Amino acid sequence: MLAWTLFILYLLGTSYLGWLGLRKTDGFSSFAIGKGDLSPLQVGVTLAAATASAATFIINPGFVYVDGLAAFMHLGLAVYLGFVLMLLLLSFRFREMGERMRALTIPDWIGKRYGSANFSLYFAVINLLSFAFIVLLVGGISIVMQQLLGISNLVALIITLVFVTGYVLIGGTYAHVYTNMLQGFLMVGVTLLIIGSGVVVMLDHPDFWGGVAGAGEHLLTAVNPGSAFYNDYFSTYLAGFCIGGALVCQPHILTKALYVKTDRQVGRYIAIFSVVYFLFTMLLLTGFWARVSLPEAALLDPATGAFRQDLVMTVYLREQFPTWLFTVISVVLLAAAMSTLDGLLVGISTITANDLVLNLLRRTRSRLDEAARFRLAMRVSQGVLIVVAVAAFLVALHPPPLLGIFGQVGVYGLVLAAVPPLLAGVLFRRVDLRTVWCFSIAALLIHFGLYGYGERLFGDAGPAFANPGVTATIALLVTVPPTLLLTLLARYRRAATQPVQS
Fold it and tell me: What are the residues facing 300 on neighbouring strands?
């Protein structure tokens, strides 16, 4: 009864914030990125909540439970450092140029930066890869909801998708920010509670780290030779750092720079984000605490009897906290997953409408004026939300075995395609379109090719190709340095051929 009461209160509170978002939304532009009137605190907390998501709060502690310190260093510290540094590198110029070009999305920004509607259309299609991450989030929410409310996967999926799609449908970006503010502060409170429980577990076990080391081989080594994902320094550290940087190029992440009006506000929201997100990252330590406090039998699927690492967080919480507090925390875990899901839904619907539908419409002899086109884009955006929700429901009914890996493969492909044009477009004044487009396609082909066929081609001689972070990092290293080097050489050639002024 308590679980349903708290959950309904959360739904009502979030619905009210969605309604406030509706009142602030007066057109397609404000639906997509707001009006530039959001504070650094709002944007920083929203960004931290949207970045942490179900992966940090629900899925990733399971990887630390199985693979130990190597997984923590990869998913935690390496990714965190890469993310924050890339955010600092890109956000200021991205905001400045985006404001000048009146860009609404990343594909819109790229298309206007390179003067190519076709390039924008290409990224609108590539953006559909974010659907894999939407499935990950919906699956993570369902896992917690089933444990919390005692309902089936079917019912959990229906509640999740109808509710989140509903408030995004009416409120757009403002609904996303307002609800993420609530969700973000709830997440901070729960994070402190969970970290506190971990401290208690460590105090109750004087030889805590010895217990972790004794629970399995290589759980406290810098790399884990027995892991399918983190078995060497390249896979664990360099891949984590590079992927952390690339993830900034997700549509619902970098466009936060367009929510504010000045570089000073950008710096402030990045500072707030860095503190809050570091706190969320420490939740991965739950994998260690669960190693000592939970028997592996507690993580078996009741229906199939198979071991499920994605149950680590929810089972740990159920064992460590009284029922009422477990219920409160579980509702916040649902909020954590929904905080990223709504941002992704805003992104995929806005990009599909603005950069796919309107892009194609502008090529026709349509008699619609610009205002009518934007009204049409608004309706298309809302229609896309419904289509994505239905598709996510159908896939999540029978989810893949490792939701975390499934989501990573798709979203890494999306960001890999975006890194060369975004990085070159921010760092250099003149960039050759053919160069960034070729390396963008190459990054996609290398990532998906190595993930699908790397082990068959190289066997044990290659790195851990089962880890999407490894294949994505190889793709980045093969495409980003040549993009920047060729652009730099082109600039020097232009300077050398210019006549000297006497």
Answer: 307
* Placement of tokens 């066997």 in the chain: 459
User: What is the phi-psi region of residue 115: left when phi exceeds 0, alpha when psi lies from -120 to 50, beta otherwise?
Assistant: left
Find where tokens 């044990």 sit. 460
Residue 502 has pLDDT above 50, yes or no: no
Residue-wise pLDDT tens digits, 285-316? 999 999 988 888 888 877 777 788 878 888 89
In this structure, what token pair is assigned to residue 64?
């630390």
Distance CA 41, CA 47 (A): 10
Q: What is the C-alpha radius of gyration for the chain, rounded to an integer number of angstroms?
A: 23
Pair 53, 137: CB distance under 8 Å: yes
Token readout for 211 is 């217990």
Q: How far apart are CA 440 and CA 454, in angstroms?
A: 20
Q: Which amino acid is at 327?
A: T
Please check the confidence at residue 376 and state whether its pLDDT lies above 80.
Answer: no
Cα 95 from chain centre: 20
* Residue 71 · residue 63 · CB < 8 Å: yes
CA neighbours closer than 13 Å in the CB half-sphere of residue 492: 6
What does the block give as tokens for 484? 């920047």
Which structure tokens are listed for 74? 């990869």
Whole-structure pTM value: 0.82
